[in-house]
Amino acid sequence: MSWDYKRGESLEKFIDRTIRPPTDFEDRVNHTIDQLVGYLHWMPGYSIQDVVKSGSLGKGTSILSDADADLVVFFSGYGNIFSLIGHKPNIIRDVRK
């Protein structure tokens, strides 16, 4: 990736070339998120209340050098945060499967 400004290049073109993720990035990430959310909702033994995009993707401020997807998963069925934290190793294990 070149951070050099090209002579005659508009600021918009410079930003597209050096900062913004590729135009299909959001479509690809959203497709992957949809697949993951579908899996989470059907994951045996868990009840998912909601999955929310957060971070730069959620705010629409992703940049090329650091583009990723941050998700917040809201689990149902836990009486308090300590119960959820106690099950965290199992949740992580099961999601990785």
Structure description:
The chain is α+β, with helices and mostly antiparallel strands. The chain has a single domain, classed as Beta Polymerase, domain 2 (2-Layer Sandwich), CATH 3.30.460. The protein has 4 helices and 2 strands; from the N terminus they run H-H-E-H-E-H. The protein has helices at 11-18, 25-42, 55-59, 81-96, and strands at 47-54, 70-76. A two-stranded antiparallel ribbon has the order 1-2. The longest helix is centred in the middle third of the chain and has 18 residues, at 25-42. The radius of gyration is 19 Å and the shape is elongated. The mean pLDDT is 83.
The whole-angstrom Rg is 19 Å
- The CATH class name reads Alpha Beta
Strand content: 15-25%
Q: How would you write the strand order of the largest sheet? A: 1-2
Helix-and-strand structural type: alpha+beta
Low-confidence stretches: none
CATH superfamily placement: Beta Polymerase, domain 2
Instruction: Spell the H/E element sequence.
Output: HHEHEH
CATH architecture: 2-Layer Sandwich
Work out the helicity level: 40-55%
Mean pLDDT: 83
- Count the strands? 2
Please report the number of helical segments: 4
Main sheet record: 2 strands, antiparallel
CATH fold node name: Beta Polymerase, domain 2
Q: First CA to last CA: what distance?
A: 35 Å
Shape: elongated
Domain tally:
1
InterPro entries: NT_sf
GO molecular function: 2'-5'-oligoadenylate synthetase activity; double-stranded RNA binding
GO cellular component, one term: membrane
Protein name: Polymerase nucleotidyl transferase domain-containing protein
